[in-house]
């Protein structure tokens, strides 16, 4: 990927997406694109910890859920939505730093199952404490504008992509990747592993918290425990791996592919998409660890070869 | 006092199933160094096997173990050939991580397939003797659950003996200790892996059968059972099947106590909090001896 070209393509895509609500007057299209953009944000944020720092965080939904819980409470109480979202992100980051110091004592699969347990603890607790459905007041519903949600989702997805891209080329990103490859070796060459992992987790959970806030701003009614459901983590993981873990455009491609196929399959068979994505995911882990990005690169290499031969 | 004791009895009976559920996971993790997070989904499928044998053929659920366990063994062999046999070729560090990912994909696919095939309804096997209760000193002991506990203990005891005495059982233990040394002494490590994985799957099938009799099953119970089994594995450590069974009983009791102390909805939370604390306090110690 040449940096300048992908930047130009990204900018063009962002402008095109920004023009969509002006041209298309259909809510279903905007809702669909909203879902894609939310998935991009979640997957890119998950990708920071898993793809760059190499830690498979199976508790990602907890931070998404905390963002949603905080934002919804403050926003419904009368705070401006952006401030509420920032507060939601702050709560997510504070929680991440609190548990991260403990959880990062765990390596590899133990970190994964430890964070999975954390996510489940929060989900069950929130489900017990806030069991009743959360619905917006009638006045807010009357003033509901889908386009506002859409632009916010677009901005957030763009920020996530830019953050991951900036991280990829920076010293910090290099340090994170060193940890991913070999933590002891990284420590030995002067990388502060715990500090960098906590930084990666903070960035990741801040974005996840903002995404949670967006969820709370978007949905008219939902059960407060729903954004804590592990399916949000699983979606992020599937999208990132299908697209290409540890790359900037992998989660982008993955999100478009995932949401398209999911909606397409859901029209005919409810939940059937998970069977296909589960199988696809296993195949990718075993056969094509680089995901769609690697597949594209291989395909390009194949088609280029005859040209070079001449 | 009696309601509390009653809770403890029920917790102990459920704990036996936790132990059985964890035994399969522990065996696979200890020997192959592969963490199969689809273990709970295998339990779920075992439960459906027993359920359909009962619903369509009228087979008694305890008798259906004779069908479910061999079928699960075969399923384990197939899963090993198709998936986990590839995972064990990787060096140990990437092996655990890859197995986690592969198990995760498998879990999703199995759960979605179960919803397609069996619908998302909750099911449970109701036999003619389902309501039978033994009364011991004012405490009610459901007969079916007591029989399940006894069967779980029997299966784990049998496995313990097999690992101690049987030639291949000892090969499995040697492989778990140090696969390179085992290879040098002429043990077919790949076959020990295959056997351990198939046995682990068979245990999951047996656990599922018992869950479908005394409790209930649905396609979505997998994650919950995987977590229970993981909690027990962390509490009990690897290497001893009887220890794992005791770990299961401890978790069952702990859940009963916490349900009495904090209320029913929090029984899961307490187990998970204990799990996280133990995991963090002894990050390697409890898994690696």
Ordered list of secondary-structure elements with their pairings:
The complex is a heterodimer of chains A (310) and B (289).
Chain A: H1 3-23, H2 27-52, H3 60-76, H4 81-103, H5 108-129, E1 134-135, H6 138-142, H7 146-169, H8 171-181, H9 183-188, H10 193-218, E2 221-222, H11 230-243, H12 249-268, H13 272-287, H14 291-309
Antiparallel strand pairs in A: 1-2
Helix pairs in contact in A: 1-7, 2-7, 2-10, 2-11, 2-12, 3-4, 3-5, 3-10, 3-11, 4-10, 7-8, 7-10, 8-10, 11-12, 12-13
Chain B: H1 2-32, H2 39-57, H3 61-87, H4 92-118, E1 133-136, E2 139-142, H5 143-165, H6 167-177, H7 179-184, H8 189-214, H9 222-236, H10 241-262, H11 267-281
Radius of gyration of chain A: 20 Å
**CATH fold name of chain B, please?**
ABC transporter involved in vitamin B12 uptake, BtuC
Largest interface: A-B, 40 and 42 residues
Number of helices of chain B: 11
- In total, how many domains does the architecture of chain B comprise? 1
Low-confidence spans of chain B: none
In oligomeric terms, what are we looking at?
heterodimer
Physical arrangement of strands within the biggest beta sheet of chain B: 1-2
> Which class best fits the helix and strand makeup of chain B?
mainly alpha
Q: Note the beta-strand portion of chain B.
A: under 5%
Q: What general outline of chain A do the C-alpha atoms trace?
A: globular
Describe the protein's architecture and organization:
The complex is a heterodimer of chains A (310) and B (289). With 310 residues, chain A is mainly α. Chain A has a single domain, classed as ABC transporter involved in vitamin B12 uptake, BtuC (Orthogonal Bundle). Chain A contains 14 helices and 2 strands; from the N terminus they run αααααβαααααβαααα. Chain A has a two-stranded antiparallel sheet. In chain A, helix 7 (146-169) crosses helix 8 (171-181), helix 7 packs antiparallel against helix 10 (193-218) and helix 11 crosses helix 12. Chain A starts with a helix and ends with a helix. The model of chain A has no long low-confidence stretch (mean pLDDT 87). Chain B is mostly helical and 289 residues long. Chain B has a single domain (2-119, 134-281), classed as ABC transporter involved in vitamin B12 uptake, BtuC. Helices cover 77% and strands 3% of the residues of chain B. Chain B contains 11 helices and 2 strands, in the order ααααββααααααα. A two-stranded antiparallel sheet of chain B has the order 1-2. In chain B, a hairpin with a 2-residue loop joins strand 1 and strand 2 (139-142). The longest helix of chain B has 31 residues, at 2-32. The radius of gyration of chain B is 19 Å and the shape is globular. Chain A binds chain B through residues 56, 102-103, 105-110, 112-114, 116-118, 120-121, 124-125, 127-128, 230, 234, 237-238, 241, 269, 271-275, 277-282, 285-286, and chain B through 35, 37, 83, 86-87, 93, 96-102, 104-113, 115-116, 223, 227, 230-231, 265-266, 268-269, 272-273, 275-276, 279-280, 283-284, 287.
